[in-house]
Specification:
heterodimer, A: 102 residues, mainly alpha, B: 614 residues, two-stranded antiparallel ribbon, 27 helices, globular
Chain lengths: 102, 614
């Protein structure tokens, strides 16, 4: 902990974010896309905690609690949507879901 | 400052709210229970108000609810002599009207709703009386409007009642627009809404802007049915008779007068003159119009308009105490008149046409006696309640050298005697003119007891009230005004009053006896009668709405279609994607989620670059 700096944390957060973003862009299974989205959110949260830690204020840390709470609720809704989609269409491949264009 | 008095006011204000909530939530099916709950509450409040009046102590209590910068908004009580008088009048008249309603509404299927409405009305009007700042007044003002709307529409399955409630609500909103602008202006000029602080500011300033008073006056014009916003009051008679007695004669319409008296220090001389002249003019006009109504309640409604005009005139003349005194006297005898009319209507099996009544003196002696006593008070027979206040106002106009106003008020006094004589002649004297009237019966005790108490005791003993109670300390501010006006036999007001009484009252009794089953004036001069039916004011509004307001609305709607809907939404909002789609050959619209996500990333990066590079 002593030899890590803010930059290290931010670098890790950035890597996680890009990892998630790449997943969102290239994967076709909506479930995986959704997990990647959550990874992006986690990356942003990590950056927030890091800033909070290195600025010696608790504001960011407190905010993270709220973000996690809301994210939990949001995951429930998102997964329910994907399940409902699967029941209705029999697939969660994003390439197959093009009704709006057709 | 003894704290027990502010808790007394808490009880007075919140008891009716409790009764209303209980009735509305749990007693919708148990109408009888709701009726007695509401009535009991009203009597308790009346007792508490009497206690407060007897103590004669000012109460002020305030709690801050919100603070924005320097502006503090709060909830509080400011009980001075005027407020004590108003509290007593409102709660006392209301208590007896509640009791009357128990009998009158016995066969109604929606009694729970009705009594909940009465209680919520009590809560609202008492809130206006005790409020210590403009915002709180405004909130209760709107609550009063709501309860009035709800009670006028009690028979909501009848078209005319639904239309009348809508009309009352809309006309009042017109006035309230001015009111809320006036409040905003007070806030921007003085930075406070508190009555006491406003009074200090007004005393410190040399002149008060005319606009402040004029805007606040708008609320008064609507609520107190002053010209030109008086059109809703006569239609409001579509509600049950106790509602007409309580809200549209005795208390709510007087709230505007009370409010004007409370903020009288904010009224510039020009505003006062305007109120005085329009009040006097309306008093004369409405008094004459009462002659051309066959519906007993509508005729009484025009009589109320005339008295409201007189009260407004007293405020305009600079005698708010006299206006309040007339409000108190008027509340007693007009409530009696309306309750008497209710008893007559009840006795005649819901017949409201005066031409079909007649000869009720023998069939309903108690109702007739109280009605006639209240009528005489209405006509300002010397030493009855109405005489003390009404003649004082006429005398004030004469002493202030406002001769036009004096002339209008004299005409109003004459008209009052004319329509009163007509009413007595048509309803109680002569022979029954219909099947219903010939089978009329006296009403049950719950209806006659309020009549006797309000009518005989207070219409007749009003003079006793005026002369002994007021100097005794509780109504102190009125005394100097009374002393300033000299009562003697040669005073102009006395001469006018006695002349109107003899010529008007007895002339009407004789004149309306000449024709049976029809209106004598209509037979003699149909054109005058038609003019006095007062349909032209509604016609004027109809023309305004159709020809002016609708055109304007259509023009604005056209602009909306053209600019907002057309240019902004259709052209820009719809056009840009359409053009882009055309140019790119729909390469954006792949229908692939990943492609859209990519575009989101590109757009975000572009925005980030834009913000950083700037």
């Amino acid at each position: 902990m002593e030899n890590t700096s803010l930059a290290h944390h931010l670098l890790l957060a950035g890597l996680l974010f890009v990892l998630g973003l790449t997943g969102v862009l290239i994967r076709r299974n909506l479930l995986v896309v959704y997990m990647c989205l959550e990874l992006m959110l986690a990356a942003a949260t990590l950056a927030l905690v890091a800033f909070s830690r290195f600025n010696r204020t608790m504001d960011g840390a407190v905010l993270v609690f709220f973000v996690i709470t809301v994210a939990a609720a949001e995951v429930a809704v998102g997964l329910a949507l994907i399940v409902a989609l699967f029941r209705k269409r029999g697939t969660v491949q994003s390439d197959a879901l093009t009704t709006l264009r057709d | 400052m003894p704290s027990d008095l502010s808790s007394l006011v808490h009880w007075i204000l919140f008891l009716p709210l409790g009764a209303a909530v209980l009735s509305a939530l749990f007693l919708r099916r148990a109408g009888g229970l709701a009726a007695w709950l509401s009535t009991g509450t009203a009597f308790v409040i009346a007792g508490l108000s009497l206690l407060l009046l007897g103590k004669g102590v000012d109460v002020s209590w305030h709690v801050e609810l919100a603070k924005f910068g320097d502006v503090s908004l709060g909830f509080g009580y400011l009980i001075d002599a005027n407020a004590r008088l108003m509290l007593f009048v409102v709660s006392f008249v209301a208590a007896w009207i509640h009791l009357f309603s128990v009998g009158y509404m016995k066969e109604d299927s929606a009694r729970g709703r009705f009594f909940a409405g009465l209680s919520i009305f009590m809560f609202s009007i008492l809130g206006i009386v005790v409020a210590d700042n403009l915002l709180m007044t405004f909130i209760y003002w709107e609550l009063v409007g709501f309860s009035s709307y709800m009670l006028i529409a009690h028979y909501f399955d009848k078209d005319y009642a639904a239309a009348a409630s809508k009309k009352a609500f809309i006309v009042n909103r017109v006035g309230d627009l001015g009111f809320i602008l006036g409040i905003a202006m007070c806030l921007s000029l003085y930075g406070t809404l508190d009555f006491v602080a406003l009074k200090d500011h007004a005393a410190a300033a040399k002149t008060i802007p005319v606009a402040v008073g004029a805007l606040l006056m708008c609320g008064f014009l609507g609520k107190s049915a002053q010209f030109p916003l008086h059109v809703w009051l006569t239609d409001a008679m579509a509600g049950p008779t106790p509602v007409s007695a309580l809200i549209h004669a005795a208390t709510m319409v007087a709230a505007g007068v009370y409010f004007m008296a409370r903020v009288s220090f904010l009224l510039a001389p020009d505003v006062l003159n305007l109120i005085a002249i329009s009040g006097a003019g309306m008093a004369a006009l409405a008094g004459l119009c009462a002659l051309a109504q066959t519906d007993i309640k509508k005729s009484l409604a025009y009589s109320t308009l005339a008295h409201l005009g007189i009260m407004g005139c007293a405020i305009g003349l600079g005698h708010p105490e006299l206006a309040l005194m007339h409000m108190a006297m008027h509340a007693f005898f007009k409530a009696t008149l309306f309750l008497g009319a209710g008893s007559v209507i009840h006795g005649c099996h819901h017949e409201q046409d005066m031409l079909k009544m007649g000869g009720l003196l023998k069939k309903m002696p108690l109702t007739a006696a109280t009605f006639i006593a209240a009528t005489l008070s209405n006509c300002a027979v010397p030493f009855l309640a109405g005489w003390y206040s009404k003649d004082a106002i006429i005398e004030a106009a004469y002493h202030g050298h406002h001769f036009v106003i004096f002339a209008f008020l004299s005409l109003a006094a004459l008209a009052t005697c004319l329509y009163s004589g007509r009413m007595i002649r048509l309803v109680f004297l002569g022979e029954a003119n219909s099947e219903e009237a010939s089978h009329a019966h006296e009403s049950p005790w719950t209806m006659t007891l309020p009549l006797v108490v309000l009518g005989l005791v207070y219409s007749v003993a009003g003079g006793f009230l005026a002369s002994t109670l007021m100097p005794a300390g509780s109504l102190q501010p009125i005394k100097p005004a009374l002393d300033a006006i000299v009562f003697h036999l040669t005073a102009p007001s006395t001469i006018v009053g006695l002349f109107s009484l003899v010529v008007g009252f007895f002339g009407a009794l004789k004149f309306y006896g000449t024709v049976r089953g029809a209106d004598a004036l209509q037979v003699v001069s149909p054109r005058t009668y038609h003019l006095l039916e007062h349909r032209w004011m509604d016609g004027l509004y109809r023309w305004y709405v159709d020809a002016v307001q609708r055109r304007l609305a259509e023009f604005v709607a056209f602009l909306d279609l053209l600019i907002i809907n057309g240019v902004a939404v259709r052209w820009i909002g719809g056009g840009v994607p359409a053009v882009l789609g055309y140019l790119t050959g729909r390469s954006f619209h792949r229908g692939q989620t990943r492609a859209y996500a990519l575009w989101i990333v590109v757009g975000t990066l572009f925005l980030a670059w834009f913000l950083i590079a700037r």
